[in-house]
Design brief:
Elements lengths: L5 H20 L3 H14 L4 H10 L10
């Protein structure tokens, strides 16, 4: 998360998008969801990043309660 701009956020989400199927193949979707949710929580002030993560609508990644 060193690049705090839209391109950096899109790159980070792109990495997660590529990692998700790998986690599923390994049967590790719970850990993936936990890590992705932690990223979302830790970076909650980066609204554009949070919007991108929310747009993925991944069931294994719980959304933070507002």
């Amino acid at each position: 998360m060193a690049h705090t701009n839209q391109a950096g956020y899109e790159q980070a989400v792109g990495f997660l998008t590529r990692m998700r199927p790998l986690a599923h193949r390994l049967g590790d979707q719970v850990a993936f969801g936990r890590e992705a949710a932690e990223l979302r929580t830790d970076q909650h002030r980066k609204r554009n990043l949070v919007r991108l993560l929310d747009s993925l609508d991944w069931p294994e990644v719980p959304r933070a309660h507002a």
